[in-house]
Design a protein that fits this description.
By secondary structure, this protein is of the alpha/beta class. The protein folds into four domains: 166 residues, P-loop containing nucleotide triphosphate hydrolases (Rossmann fold, 3-Layer(aba) Sandwich); 74 residues, Helicase, Ruva Protein, domain 3 (Orthogonal Bundle), CATH 1.10.8.60; 90 residues, Zinc Finger, Delta Prime, domain 3; 78 residues, Orthogonal Bundle (post-AAA+ oligomerization domain-like), CATH 1.10.3710.10. It has 19 helices and eight strands. Helix 15 runs parallel beside helix 17. The N and C termini lie far apart (82 Å). The relative contact order is 0.07.
Amino acid sequence: MSATLFDEGASPARPGAPLAVRMRPRSLEELVGQQGLLVPGAPLRRLIEGDEGPSVASVLLWGPPGTGKTTLASLAASASGRRFVELSAVTAGVKDVREVIDAARRELGMSGRGTVLFVDEVHRFNKTQQDALLPAVENGWITLVAATTENPSFSVVAPLLSRSLLLRLESLTDDDLNRLVDRALTDVRGLGGRLELDDEAREHLMRVAGGDARRLLTALEAAAGAALAERGAQAVSIMLPDVERAVDRAAVRYDRDGDQHYDISSAMIKSIRGSDVDAGLHYLARMLEAGEDPRYIARRLVILASEDVGMADPTALQTALAAMQAVALIGMPEARIVLAQAVVHLAVAPKSNAAYLAIDAAIADVRAGKSGAVPVHLRDASYSGARGLGHGQGYLYAHDAPGGVAAQQYLPDDLIGTRYYRPTDRGFEARVTEVLERIREGLGSES
């Protein structure tokens, strides 16, 4: 059977284990992040603390890699009085699941001792494998702790989802990651105080980690190895080049709160506006590699789609909006592909800022007091007494007019003849120019 059984709680990591394994928290006090899920009395905390009460629910832990799903299960393994069995959905089958459940039922019947079953990557179980868990969860033969990086609404069968408490784990913050780094540098399970960490190296580690504790500690261990291999016993500090060599990624000079944030995002927008698709992709890559929020990039592209492309290619805004929605739904690293598609579309699209100039010109007139009264025939005539004031009298319904264009005054008296929107001759807007000329000609002097 491809299950791992811990009868006496989680065993300590062997000395030669990877740093991320050696530094796995041994208690709630060592855990960083996810504190909202661990307040006193919370189901997950009760499970970890060994509460045997019948109301301790099975849980689905959903979150990005390296946010503590396996660690939380490991802490549950240390809870007193419970058997802890671990299954990997990558290798386990229905037979393995049923064997675990049968053993749990026997243990519960003979000694009254409950079983916690941890299923890692539960989204890899097919429907039949997930269905095999249902009777055990429903009857309380096991307490299920299942971990997934995919949205359970799409990857976990509805009956199992309804019988479990869904807990969302968030990516670790920089403060969380710094605490992990400090502990790994000083703890005897980690580097034991042999090396310090340079500030620039620490900053690059934070960017490389992307909120993933496992990735952070793996990179730190590799960087420490690079420092010792390069300088031997004389190495006293892990430097930026050590981290760059270890993770095979150069540090991107980028400050999300400073000039570089604005300079590089400005360069990306201006490159796309200038139709240089390669430069646009280059600056996009720099922002993504530096850890810029992809949602910020998507918002900037939506603005550009209207400001710089506009009606020259009306589908550009659709692409940018779809990209913004997709980025919010899927996140990184896949979001890079969506953003790249949007950058390419916007860069190669014909350009027009006519809509942008039009609304700014209209706003300028309003702010300058050029408003004027709404023509009487355009005023609201729906309320009692409006007709007596002449509202709506003489109004021509556009759908009854030839070509759907009713020749009548629309602008206030003071603005008759004003032109705000002046389309270009580029892309789809060239066609708009022809249509608008015919419309304005049909409206004639009444416009």
